[in-house]
TrEMBL record:
Name of protein: S9 family peptidase
Record organism: Salibacterium salarium
Example GO molecular function: serine-type endopeptidase activity
InterPro entries per the UniProt record, alphabetical: 6-blade_b-propeller_TolB-like, AB_hydrolase_fold, Peptidase_S9_cat, WD40
Keywords: Hydrolase, Protease, Serine protease
Lineage: Bacteria, Bacillati, Bacillota, Bacilli, Bacillales
């Protein structure tokens, strides 16, 4: 352990500043960003900061017990629009670039998000939620909700009536609205019982491109199309043909092309994203990265960030290049591509780019970068110089105080010859000649990627004296299309073998690992695999399954994605082939489980609902096995990343207690 540094703890979650959403100003002299932290009252707060490139320290721009995010500079650079809940719900606010008090731009009944200035500076596009027959209305300042009013039943007529991030949808859909900045008039641009996403303006401010599924069967299909709306006539043109998933569209500066990210669902949810260029007049689209076997976008996972903000493919000013993020072998970097499809790295190092902003005239990037020993900071990079310059050190005090375990990359070989990539972290108190227990961590997805990024949970386990092994078994992103598709219809097959081979490899390679004290844990797919492992092996002395899947036959009907996910991933639907779903269900093998198991689950998890944990607990308890069930109130599937801070800390504390007891 580093001299004079202490081990990192679960409570240190309260000390970490998490930065995101860099936005370079129009003059290129500064950038805005969001900084989130847990307050003294153990609630999340986020504020805007402005950082001039010539200054050492960023200036905090907004204050208070609020959540401010989504900063966007006006076209003339004199104002900064953003989303804030300071009025009680998310609305669009604006501040002068010279500072001062924020001014509220919207006060719509169902809130407003995603502000986008028009290039001519006359409009502000934003998103709001409406029912199909509902018109936009303003907040009634005199109206207050009666907390004693009896709740009404929820009428359900659609398959997609709930989602893990929003709960019960109550028939509201996301629509695009236009604020006329001169008159403050607001009009809704989209209609119908559909959701509308990720919009961008045409250079002439006449048209908007956006993503939606407006098909008659949108409730059961998983396609996402691009559309163009004329803001004067409100005519909508469909650009794509309901054959895939297309989003994050950006117009070229000459208005002749639209770039986007998407795929044609060839391998369902395991299909690699590609960069596409579309002619808005002919609707002809070209896949620009067809020969590049790499996932476009940020596939890295961490427990301090939720979701993957993505600017999409960004055009150079001369519209000869596109810039985008991609994930490969545990790295998320920034890449450039010319119109012949030639790709090269703008930034590709052993770290994780979690966001960027690009200034086309200056050819300047501001990048958010994390690595295993740093939660994240901003760097600037001039594309011609190829040398990044650090701009911030937002966790300097925290990082000076705590010891970090630095992961060692490992590569194992599967029985069929495939190479499996991962990392091993030594215990923080590591000493030559001593032997230590090992914890195997398994990521969710499964189509995601452990990466060279900061992961608080892994550091906490290492600080408590465990070696920590985490790998990207087949099914993970970062290793090509064949690799990411390989676990489909084989859950618990070769993906299980990959993990067991990795454990064997580190035991045989590192003499400090005590093979008699092995633990395993994971969440979501990682929870499924934890359940599967202890039902097929007794080598682990302790297990913790988190937000897991135990029974695919019930998952089909209770998960917000179950009705298509079981078909996509297991290759069966409940009413066609329940035997196949049951064969791949860990619950089928529950009699084989002898490993002491801690089941952790959020009670508002609609992705892997808590009944999955309940079934497993009931069966194990009925069989008189060693099991404890830990239920987290008011927590959804994102508990470990963005759940209530007190519950996140308690979760880590219970993990520590369980492993300490049995390892």
């Amino acid at each position: 352990m580093s001299y004079n540094k202490r081990p990192i703890t679960s409570d240190d979650l309260k000390k970490i500043n998490v930065v995101s959403e860099p936005q370079i100003s129009r003059d290129g002299e500064k950038y805005a960003f969001v900084q989130k932290k847990i307050g003294d009252d153990l609630n999340y707060y986020s504020h805007l900061f402005i950082h001039h490139h010539t200054d050492d320290i960023p200036i905090q721009w907004t204050f208070g017990k609020v959540k401010d995010h989504s900063p966007r500079w006006s076209q003339d650079g004199t104002e900064l629009a953003f989303v804030s809940n300071r009025s009680g719900m998310d609305q669009i606010w604006v501040m002068s670039s010279a500072g001062g008090e924020p001014r509220q731009l919207t006060a719509v009944k169902n809130g407003a998000t995603n502000p986008i200035w028009s290039p001519n500076g006359k409009y502000l596009l934003f998103s709001t939620s409406l029912r199909a027959d509902e018109s936009i209305t303003l907040v009634d300042e005199n109206h207050t909700e009666d907390s004693d009013t009896q709740k009404e039943p929820v009428v359900v007529n659609k398959l997609r009536y709930k989602s893990d991030d929003k709960g019960f949808r109550k028939e509201k859909r996301s629509h695009l609205a236009l604020l006329h900045l001169k008159t403050n008039e607001i009009n809704i641009l989209t209609d119908g019982d559909f959701d509308h996403h990720s919009a961008d303006w045409s250079p002439d401010s006449r048209h908007i491109v956006f993503s939606a599924n407006r098909d008659a069967d949108e409730d059961v299909s998983n396609t996402l199309d691009l559309f163009i709306i004329d803001i004067e006539t409100e005519d909508i043109i469909k650009l794509t043909d309901s054959s895939g998933v297309f989003s994050h569209a950006n117009w070229s500066y000459d208005g002749k092309k639209i770039a986007c990210i998407g795929h044609e669902l060839k391998y369902k949810g395991a299909t690699l994203n590609q960069v596409w260029v579309i002619d808005p007049l002919s609707k002809h689209r070209t896949c620009m990265t067809l020969k590049w076997d790499v996932q476009i976008g940020d596939a890295a996972i961490s427990d301090i960030r939720s979701g993957h903000p993505n600017p999409g493919p960004v055009w150079s000013h001369d519209h000869k290049h596109l810039f985008f993020m991609a994930s490969d072998h545990g790295i998320t970097g920034i890449y450039q591509m010319d119109m012949d499809g030639e790709i090269s790295a703008v930034h590709e190092e052993d770290n994780h780019v979690f966001g960027f902003s690009y200034h086309p005239q200056l050819d300047l990037f501001v990048m958010g970068i994390s690595d295993p020993s740093n939660p994240g900071d901003f760097y600037k990079l001039n594309r011609n110089e190829k040398r990044k310059v650090r701009l911030t050190d937002v966790n300097v005090d925290f990082l000076r105080e705590v010891h970090m375990s630095i992961p060692e990359p490992i590569t194992t070989q599967a029985d069929d010859g495939w190479e499996i990539h991962g990392w091993l972290m030594r215990p923080a108190n590591y000493e030559e000649g001593q032997r230590y227990p090992l914890v195997l961590e398994i990521h969710g997805g499964p189509h995601a990627m452990y990466a060279n990024t900061f992961f608080h949970e892994l550091q906490v386990l290492a600080a408590q004296g465990y070696a920590v092994l985490y790998t990207n078994p087949r099914g993970s992103h970062g290793y090509g299309q064949t690799f990411v598709n390989a676990c489909r219809e084989d859950y618990g097959g070769k993906d299980y073998d990959d993990l067991m081979n990795a454990v064997d490899h580190v035991i045989n390679t590192y003499d400090f690992i005590d093979e008699k004290r092995l633990g395993v844990t994971g969440g979501s797919y990682g929870g499924f695999m934890t359940n599967w492992i202890i039902g097929h092996s007794n080598r682990f002395k302790a297990a913790i399954t988190q937000r897991s899947i135990s029974n695919w036959t019930s998952f089909y009907g209770v998960s917000d994605i179950g009705f298509f996910f079981t078909d996509w991933e297991i290759g069966a639907r409940m009413f066609d082939d329940p035997e196949k779903l049951w064969h791949h269900s860990p619950l089928k093998y529950v009699k084989n489980i002898n490993t002491p198991l801690l089941i952790m689950h959020g009670e508002k998890d609609y992705r892997c609902p808590i009944e999955q944990g309940e079934q497993l607990f009931t069966a194990l308890k009925h069989l008189d096995k060693t099991v404890t069930f830990l239920r987290f109130p008011d927590a959804n599937h994102e508990l470990s990343r963005s759940g209530p801070p007190t519950l996140r800390i308690e979760r880590l504390n219970h993990m520590a207690q369980w492993f300490k007891k049995y390892l």
